Amino acid sequence: MIRRVLLSTAVFSLLMIAVAATAEDSYQVHCAQCHGIAGQGNNALGAPNLTQLSAPYIRRQLEGFQAGWRESDDSYTQTMMAAIAALDAPVLASATSAIDAFPDKSHTTAATHAGNKKRGKDLYNAYCSACHGTNAVGNDALGAPNLLGLSQDYLTRQYRHFAEGRRGGHSDDRYGQQMARLARALKDPQLIDDVSSYVATLAE
Ligand code: HEC
Ligand code: HEC
Q1: Number of CB atoms found within 10 A of residue 10's CB
Q2: Structural domain spans, the chain
Q3: Model pTM?
Q4: 3-state secondary structure of 47
Q5: CA–CA dist 141, 132 (Å, integer)
Q6: At a CB cut-off of 8 Å and minimum separation 6, what does 12 contact?
Q7: CA separation for the pair 24, 27 (Å, rounded)
Q8: Which residue has the higher pLDDT, 180 or 200?
């Protein structure tokens, strides 16, 4: 009896290792060349750090890239859409669980562009913290992602896309629409640099 329990425990452990290995494989085969082998991102390719993003947010974005509501005329967005266009749901689900298991790399970004961090802090607290949280770690209940660990280039680019109606304009993009409404209210490029340089200091 004991032997049988031990055997089934061993088989179960092996199965779990196999499941973990498949998830890691899906990620390494389909995502790592752009997002890095540990999900840390690659700024030169415009591919963001994924390690700090919640699984519900990642799933929603992947769905949007495939369904078309996260589409834009931006070349980085087009690259991402093409990269996963042919992948089926189980592969994407297993890549997402591999990302979830990576250590959080949100403390690796530094501000790369000048910005007035003091004004950025005031703006952040007044306009962003209600949804993204005081420390920018996000709030899944509101659909607002963690912003720590996203490079300043990526933060600024996405923000501008929302402000210009290139992201969050689609009627199926429920959460993107909320962010787009806010971004239109604050679209001075200098102020966006101020906010994103402040967010980058929070990640240090
Ligand atoms: C050929 C390069 C490439 C490959 C391969 C790739 N991506 Fe991306 N990914 C990008 C780029 C570039 C962006 C930024 C898109 C944008 O700016 O709109 C991105 C964006 C994303 C986002 C949105 C992040 C956010 O903060 O909103 C997620 C999630 C994501 N990728 C997950 C994945 C997963 C999972 C895979 C593998 C199944 C994958 N990507 C494969 C280049 C790639
Ligand atoms: C009303 C709530 C709300 C407020 C206020 C808000 N956001 Fe957002 N933000 C969201 C939601 C929801 C998303 C996710 C959109 C999606 O799913 O595509 C988002 C997404 C983002 C993204 C994209 C992140 C990524 O990984 O692609 C950036 C950058 C961002 N917000 C910056 C800001 C900044 C800076 C402010 C303040 C100036 C701000 N947000 C204020 C709700 C909000």
Answers
A1: 10
A2: 2-202
A3: 0.91
A4: strand
A5: 11
A6: none
A7: 5
A8: 180
- Say which DSSP state 116 is in: -
pLDDT (tens digit, 9 = 90+) per residue, 127-151?
Answer: 999 999 999 999 999 999 999 989 8
Instruction: Name the closest ligand to CA 173.
Output: 2
Q: Which residues line ligand 1 (CB under 6 A)?
A: 30-31, 33-35, 45-48, 50, 53, 58, 61-62, 74, 76-77, 79-80, 83-84, 87, 92, 95
Domain 2-202 annotated CATH 1.10.760.10: yes
**Count of C-beta atoms within a 10 Å radius of residue 189:** 11
- Would you say how long the chain is, in residues? 204
Q: What single-letter DSSP state applies at residue 144?
A: B
Phi, psi of 47 (to 5 degrees): -95, 120
Q: Which residues pair with 38 in a beta bridge?
A: none
